[in-house]
Amino acid sequence: MPIAVHSVAEVAPLIDRVRAAAARTVQAMTRLTASEPDVLEVLRQMKFTTMAWHPLEERALNLIEQVNQTWTCLVTLRALPFLFARHPEAGGFELNLGTEGGTDILSLAPGAVAAETFAAVHPMNDRKLPKDLRKLADACPHVRARYVFFAAPGYKVQGFERRAPTRRRRSGGRLADRGERRHRLLGPRGRTFLGHCIASAGGQ
After folding, report:
1. Whole-angstrom Cα distance, residue 57 to residue 137?
2. Which residues are CB-contacts of 203 (< 8 A; sequence separation ≥ 6)?
3. Residues 94, 4: contact at Cβ < 8 Å?
4. Which of 38, 54, 157, 168 has the fewest CB atoms found within 10 Å of its own CB?
5. How confident is the model over 50-107, as pLDDT tens digits?
6. In terms of Cα–Cα distance, which of 144, 89, 91, 82 is closest to 117?
7. Residues 6+ apart with CB under 8 A from 176
8. Strand locations in 154-204, DSSP E?
9. What are the C-alpha distances in Å from 139 to residues 6, 57, 131?
10. Largest CA distance in the chain
């Protein structure tokens, strides 16, 4: 179910709940591996049974689902301090976490902020970043500020923020673009994205 967050002070307790659910599942895994000698049965239970726990709700969950939802939840929650600081006009945020439908983060004030979140080995795996940018453009065309937040461990540039293209200058007889060329393909319609831990889909 959607979660409404009205201030930055509410973020840390939610992260603590995610951590507690993870600890609960790790304890269950420890008991399982200690008591089950058949390694394939261990993996079967991890994949097919509800031996794990939802990161933010008091209900059992499949382990693979918990792993995926945990990191999406953490990306979402850790995006909130940035959004509260940059968009005080948002009035707080509604979070659609896990398998909830709809945009992952929406401002409580209509039309102020919308964001998608994800975690992946690389933001271009399965073209996840361009897909989320397009999803926001289609689902929230009138929202003033739109973002995609992501976690990609080991990825050197952790995210992107839209900026107006810089003026190009000549270098050694050719035009140079001040090092932004490697980011340009990540943005729709030739926009450039760089900086912060986000990909801005438009707006402020």
Report:
1. 30
2. 143, 144, 145, 146
3. yes
4. 38
5. 999 999 988 999 999 999 999 999 999 999 999 999 999 999 999 998 666 789 999 9
6. 82
7. 168, 169, 170
8. 161-163, 169-171, 174-176, 192-194, 198-203
9. 23, 27, 12
10. 70
Domain ranges of the chain: 3-203
pTM, full prediction: 0.75
What angle do the packed helices 39-48 and 63-86 form, to 10 degrees?
50
**Which helix (DSSP H) or strand (DSSP E) does residue 85 occupy?**
helix 63-86
Using one digit for the tens of pLDDT, what is the confidence trace for 5-54?
A: 999 999 999 999 999 999 999 999 999 999 999 999 999 999 999 999 99
Specify whether the CB–CB gap between 199 and 159 falls below 8 A.
yes
Q: Is there a contact between 25 and 63 (Cβ–Cβ < 8 Å)? A: yes
The stretch 167-183 carries a mean pLDDT of: 33
User: What one-letter code names the amino acid at 34?
Assistant: A
Tokens standing for residue 67:
């792993």
Here the tokens at position 135 are: 């999803």
Task: Please give the Cα distance from 171 to 106 (Å, whole number).
Answer: 44
Residues 6+ apart with CB under 8 A from 117: 72, 75, 76, 79, 104, 105, 148, 149, 150
Alpha carbon 195 to its chain centroid, in Å, reads 16
- Is residue 164 within 8 A of residue 200, CB to CB? The reply is no
